[in-house]
Amino acid sequence: MKATLWLALAALLPLAAAASGWTEAERTTLASLHIGKLPATPADASNAVEASPEAAALGKRLFFDTRLSANGRVACASCHAPERGFQDGRPLGQGLATGSRRTMPIAAASHGRWFFWDGRKDSLWSQALGPLEDGAEHGANRVQLVRLLAGGYRRDYEAVFGPLPALAGLPAAASPLGTPAEREAWTRLPAAQQDAVNRAFANLGKAIAAYERGLMPGETRLDRYIAGDASALSAQEVRGLRLFIGKAQCVSCHAGPLLSDQHFHNTGVAPRNPLQPDRGRAPAVARAQADPFNCLGPFSDTPPGGCAELSFIATDDERMEGAFKTPGLRNVAERAPFMHAGQIATLEDVVVHYVAAPDAAVGRSELARADRRRAERRPIALNAAEAADLVALLRALSGPICERGKPC
After folding, report:
1. CA max distance for the chain
2. What does R_g of the chain's alpha carbons equal in angstroms?
3. Is this prediction's pTM over 0.85?
4. Which of 50, 251, 372, 382 has its CA at 20 to 30 Å from residue 122's CA atom?
């Protein structure tokens, strides 16, 4: 299906390009941005049930269940709301308390290699576990969640993963990451019981990931334009597209069909708290390596010899200081405010930031003008009309979010 779409797209591109005066190099770049160029979802060997419809159905129920929280009022969907494009529109995530970063969108998250703004998780299922025990998000604990699986999901869980651990002897609440009382209760559990609880906890995340894996962005007006419909974009939006792949250098990081290179960059975004600037990716590398639920951990399904990215991750890359993951730009106009902690209110202000290229509060911005000989990009110079054109293009990147197996 994808191959047929791509052949049709390749045939149409020259016609649309000729009508609009795109060069051959520009046509190649435009083609790379089309949603039809998105490859099949990469397999995650650490999650043996990621492609299971039964696991996805279970994960969907869990995703919307507010009982996966300490107060019974916070679900995954509380921050990743379908009606808001699976995000929340807040500058900072809001669960039991206010978080320190913005909620990331999850459509096509399965195409990433590292998760969260800082990449501290190395799989979609491990990412799903983090908020569940975070005191500012769900605030739940492992034993509580296993009890929920046993009481509300036993048949569906065991059909996918096999028997749940026995609950006899388990306290009402216990976790190595919880309150002092929960941590103390956890230490009193025998190692075998801890392992059984951890495995069920990991499986909960794998089921949620199986559901999230089926959430993908749909076609936008940009895609229709690239495919040959010259009327899909206005003249101003076409001018913005020329800037996007050219003078404005957006495509340097916002590349490919998801409009993200999936890497980490420091672009000098001001911290919310100047006294405690967020170091981003730099400290997250050690967290990913130490995580018991990572690709190399005992709860991963990866066969021996896998996990190359985690095994060979760079631990001393100075460029990761203050760096954050490049968000995809599909549906970006629906996701104000912007940046990793909602520091910038509007798309217009985002463009102003990149033109201004301020120095970073921590680490070194790739855009910084202070030492242009070391900077990774040339300065971005846009006048007011060009900035407006670029924003117009960004507003043309909205489209539906599609769930596998349903019309979109």
Report:
1. 73
2. 22
3. yes
4. 251
In three-state form (DSSP H/G/I as H, E/B as E, the rest C), the secondary structure along 233-247 is: CCHHHHHHHHHHHCC
For the residues of 22-87, what is the DSSP string, one character each?
--HHHHHHHHHHSGGGPPPPPP-TT-TTTT-HHHHHHHHHHHT-TTSSSSS---HHHHSBGGGTSB
* Half-sphere exposure at residue 163, Cβ-oriented, CA atoms within 13 angstroms: 4
What is the DSSP-derived secondary structure letter of residue 359? P
Where does residue 102 rank: exposed (0-12), middle (13-18), buried (19+ CB within 10 A)?
buried
Q: Under CATH, which number does the domain 53-215 receive?
A: 1.10.760.10
Fold of the domain spanning 2-42+217-403: Cytochrome Bc1 Complex; Chain D, domain 2 (1.10.760)
Q: For 49-108, how does the pLDDT look when each residue is reduced to its tens digit (9 = 90+)?
A: 999 999 999 999 999 999 999 999 999 999 999 999 999 999 999 999 999 999 999 999
Q: Give the model confidence (pLDDT) of 104-148 as tens digits.
A: 999 999 999 999 999 999 999 999 999 999 999 999 999 999 999
Of the pLDDT bands very low, low, confident and very high (cuts 50, 70, 90), residue 14 is very low
Q: Are 323 and 363 contacting, i.e. CB atoms less than 8 angstroms apart?
A: yes
DSSP 202: H
Q: What residues have CB less than 8 Å from 113, skipping those under 6 apart?
A: 122, 262, 309
Q: What angle do the packed helices 180-187 and 142-152 form, to 10 degrees?
A: 80
**How many Å from the N-terminal Cα to the C-terminal Cα in the chain?**
16
Q: Do domains 2-42+217-403 and 53-215 have the same CATH topology?
A: yes
Give strand pairing partners of 153: none
What is the pLDDT, as a whole number, of residue 12? 52
CA distances from 372 to 190, 338, 375 (A): 58, 26, 5
Query: How far apart, in whole angstroms, are the C-alpha atoms of residue 340 and residue 325?
Result: 9
DSSP strand E in 138-232: where?
Answer: 215-217
Rounded Cα gap, residues 241 and 248, in angstroms: 10
How many residues does the structure list for the chain?
Answer: 408
Please tell me whether residue 403 adopts helix, strand or coil conformation. strand
How far apart are the C-alpha atoms of 340 and 118, rounded to whole Å? 9
- Domain coordinates of the chain in residue numbers? 2-42+217-403, 53-215
Q: Tell me: the pLDDT tens digits for 188-198?
A: 999 999 999 99
